[in-house]
Amino acid sequence: MTLLSAKKIASVTGGIISGNENTEIQSVAKLNEGDEYSLGFFANPKYEHQVYESRCGIIFIPKDFHPQKKVSGTLIAHENPYFAFCQILSLFFNPNTKRTGIHPQALIDATAEIAEDAYIGPFCHIGAHVKIARGAQIHERVSIGDGCIIGEDATIFSGVTIYSLSQIGNRFTAHAGCVIGSDGFGFAPVNGVYMKIPQVGIVEIEDDVELGANCCIDRATMGKTIIKKGTKLDNLVQIAHNVEVGEHVVIASQTGVAGSTVIGHHCVLGGQVGVAGHLHIAPHNSFGGQAGITGNIKESNQKMTGTPAMDVNAYLRGVVGSQKVSQLQKEIKQLKKEIDTLKSRHE
User: Fold this and answer.
1) Peptide bond into 62 cis (omega under 30)
2) 319 pLDDT exceeds 80?
3) Which of 78, 241, 265, 278 is catalytic?
4) What topology is assigned to 4-92 in CATH?
């Protein structure tokens, strides 16, 4: 059982204690669910009331927050309470503890190079000339094709398939069911039938990338499909061949990006966004759920939604306007009647 004092937590995260520094916790919880042995955090102002009602023994709060009522627990002020909370989760409550060694039921080619402290789980298949760096965690039933490179401290969960020649960076995470390096969707119409175009490129994923469950990253037709450092993909995201996803991009569930599109750094794509192929999207743009991106986005720092994607305020005005169409039609019909009546009186 992990017992952590407020003093220890503040020391690890750089927070400032207000209250008893010897208060200890043994679990983490939401503010409205915790008890005196729980650590919680407060970041969103709309949940301020939960700070006063919470039974959590220790609560992270923003540095500029000044409680207006009594709080039962010890407070730790931090520049970014959620980040500090995540630090503690990662260091002391992470259920995915690291293991080492190769399970006897793993099938590994004799030419593969595996670091001594890496872990290979049961029923894994590791192909020829694969390189797996130190600290990597390859869970059960993972298939890694010939010539792949897996970086330091990568975590690849069960059922992931990585096709040949894929290059994976350090601190990479792929959740269950991901497929990396499958053929891009390349077919040429010839005499009424579709001829497959060989996909001879690779997938390159840089450091600190995370893929949610069942993501699919297609290999390039030629060259590379690239996901740059720090990017995070939610479950069920499709990245097509020769796409380049910039640094620190966030893409929510069920989004699909068509081939050869370039997404600039620090973009945010909501759920079920559809991105057409061969586009360039400027950095620092945000797209709401179900947006359809059908053309190049040349300017940065925009918030867009709708199909085709447009400025969110313009889209909302359009929605409001469309809701008034029925009433406007009635009014036009009534005006037409009145005009016809006036005409008939003058005839």
Assistant:
1) no
2) no
3) 241
4) 3.40.1390
